[in-house]
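Table 4 source record.
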Amino acid sequence: MILRDDNGTLKGASVSGKQPWTGGELHSLAFTSGSTAFTIGEILTGATSGTTATVIDFHLTGGSWVGGDAAGVVYLKQKSATAFVAENLNGATAGVNCASIGRASTAISLTLDQAEAYANANGEGFGICNVWSYAYMQLLIYIETHTLDSQTALGKGIVDLASGTCYTGKITGADSIDSRLGTNGTGTGSGTNGQTPIAWRGIENIYGNVWEFVAGLDMFLSDGSYRVLKRDGTGTPAATLAEGSYETGVGTVPVTADGYISGIQSDEIGALAFIPSAVAGSSSTYICDKFVYPRSNPSPVRFGGNWDDNTEAGIAARYANDTVLANAWTIGARIEYLP
């Protein structure tokens, strides 16, 4: 999911050629006196502070570039610890004094609940991918590929890059993947396996590159119980599912050790949602992907894996070691529309 600003309202969007929006490092910076449009990916430098940051996206709220009075907000991946001050900006592409700012940038977080709200802002039916949507796609992948090893069947995904100190994954549509898909919408980018995107049925990076917040699944360290968004569509997706929004599984998830998933719950809810029951497997046996047990009460669950998770990533990967306020540069979300 990418975030764009429409008249001041942050909304979820899905766009090729952009950095996925994650938490923990991105900033917004209001500008005026813009004379040259920013370029996505260029470095901006504060003329006085020397602070540097990479342009992720921007929008105008008034004026024009041609008139030299463009005003708006530029979204940045901050590169240095020093804060911007009231100063001019020099762009690696836009040029010297390409815009002016009046203050330091503002950090933007992305928790599960914030991601859901940004997706909801598009209108009725929009949200981030929920647990049942993801489980449905997971089942279809298993049926289509005839294996539980998604990384062997579809490609490793973007999982073998250096961890870095901030977002170091790839932009959406990287490595010409949009033009390399088969008639069924499945394929890989032009790069090295493990460093290039995968797509299945037109869905890019269903695992790898960025962890996904998935709405509608809570796990508990205290007793291993789990709650899943109601299947009839009446529940409200959230980091902490409210009373009346969930069904409770019969079994328990592992709560003492992380590991590769070797078993799935046998009760109807747990089986349909692919809730792990045991972690005695490996990257090439049983379910082939990793489960990290809950550390909180409740723990929301992120799915898929990010750019440096190697064989621990995959369509079944589930990490429940976050709190409801988790906000990190490795975690984003996927927007969906359910009519």
